[in-house]
Amino acid sequence: MESIEVLVAHIQGLSRSPDEVSHLHSLLKQSEDALRSHAARLAPFLSQLDPSIHTLGYLFLLEAYSSGSISGEEASGFLLTVVEFINSCSAEQIQLAPEKFISVCKSFKDQVMQLGVPMQGIAPLWMAVRKLQTSTEQLTTLHSDYLLLCLLAKCYKAGLSILDDDIFEVDHPRDHFLYCYYGGMINIGLKRFEKALACLHNVVTAPMTTLNAICVEAYKKYILVSLILNGQVPSFPKYTSSAAHRNLKNYTQPYVDLANFYASGKFSELEACIQTNQEKFLSDSNLGLVKQVLSSLYKRNIQRLTQTYLTLSLQDIANVAQLNNPKEAEMHVLQMIQDGEIFATINQKDGMVSFHEDPEQYKSCGMTEHIDFSIQRLMALSKKLSSLDDNLSCDPQYLSKVGKERQKFDFDEFDSVSHKFM
Amino acid sequence: MEELSVHSREEKNVEEIARRFVPYGGRKKSPLGFYLAMDLSPIQKDLASKCYSAVADTCDDLMLKLASRGIRYQDEWPFAIHLLGHVFANDLNSARFLWKSIPLEIKESRPEIVAVWKIGQCLWTRDYAGVYDAIRGFDWSAEITAMVVAFSENYTKKMFQMLNSAYSTISVTDVAHFLGMSEDRAIDYALQHGWKLDSSCKMVIVKKPKTVTERKLDPSKLQRLTEYVFHLEH
């Protein structure tokens, strides 16, 4: 216990300047084992430190404390301590020991989930993500934990502030899988189906040597969201890993069947397919989404009519879309006009609907702004890609691989790779 | 509105446990200071300045902050205003999730929350006329009345715009239905906005308003075009 008191004195004394802090850092690293062995008794020492000034020391003590087991009565107090710490800690000192910070946040998340109060963890974890990131383009391990808490607490909108950042740096592939999968689920909950599709697409087409469970679940939702949004499931793009390409459909057979019945356009057949596979859909927690697929079939059938007819009576629409009467057809068409899914006008006097072309002429100021904005984003992305490409062509691993293949060619050929890499 | 104080046995226990973790210099400031009283002033500010579209975000942020302190805010939280905030912003998904998270005892003891939810439900199921019934079918408390009135006016305007874009001719009964007015008032409203009445078959002919879209270009666009061409060339 004496060593702990000495350590606390060091922390209080050595937290002023960056040099002192790095000296402190090495002292702390040496005392890690001592801290862990006294894990249960560290609580009173924490009260002698100020998390905003003595961040690094506080972090080491807190991490050691959280690595031990925390009893029921201490749990709520622990949560409040961590919340206070995250809110007041200094981001620069955190960056010196990011793994410890992540470990504390993960214990926090586990406790919050165990106590059944996920909402308590949302605001602190958001702050933790922002303090841990070196830039908003970096994906940290905490991103997926944050989204998980948002999902459990049903505070979907809170997830958007993190989800809307563009990510360009990923440290661990597993973070990426979970982040995109949870991100897809949050977007589905908010009915932002296009964004959900993009997230799920990232999981399905991510590089992988073997299939993992996250990818399988993501593919199931991918099929359902594709049907709701576009009425069909696209084939795998070229850059999909062969592991995914070969095996995904085997694990998701009921969903592939659903997609086939959807393509036929017949309501009764689709309903029958859903009935047979209801257990499977329920156990995957996808039944709600499947029901949305079913109701989207009406819309799909009506949309198909716009491609063939200029005007059509409400009675005919009801017949084609398998609705009960013209009034129901009118309500469906009205909903679709309201949602911007078709362009039409209803003429109640004659009981007819006229279908129109998209009136957007792409000439207005607002549309020009929108196009400008998209082009700027594309240019920024293209610059990022060229710099990535440049970095990659200097990478020793890449050059040695290219160098090995070089040997198959004639030595007379232009030698772009130095011999030292062969 | 005076600050609300929250006292319950649960909170006293948490306070005891939290005392073990009084931070450095704890005498001077208590980080758990406002866990004995909830400060709802940001919400009041929005209501007073009639920024109704901002109410939902303000409520969300404040709720998460209170939750992170481990406070049991549910008893005193203005759920009715929070729900109406989401409805006002037409964010029915968030309204639904909020409704699901409200504890049953609170739903049963505060009929105003249920009344606001009725409005949200009608919007969700596209029961266009039901919305008006839900608005008129409850005796709203003083602090929420202004917001309900603002929502009602907004909704009527939106409905009229929808009819404008979706119909070329529509029966008078339906117009009255969608606008939540009597048939005579509905006819007046429609005529005011330039529609014509065909009294023989009780139909109104819709006149779409002329939309003026701005098409002026300014010199900065030229600069942007130059940038694009440069980028494409390299």
Automatic annotation (TrEMBL), chain B:
GO biological process, one term: COP9 signalosome assembly
Record localization: Cytoplasm; Nucleus
CSN8/PSMD8/EIF3K domain segment(s): 76-210
Keyword Manganese: no
Statement: the UniProt record of this protein carries the keyword Cytoplasm: yes
Annotated keywords: Cytoplasm, Nucleus, Signalosome
GO cellular component entries: COP9 signalosome; cytoplasm
Membrane-spanning ranges: none
Main location: cytoplasm
InterPro entries reported in the protein's UniProt record: COP9_CSN8, CSN8_PSD8_EIF3K
Protein name (database record): CSN8/PSMD8/EIF3K domain-containing protein
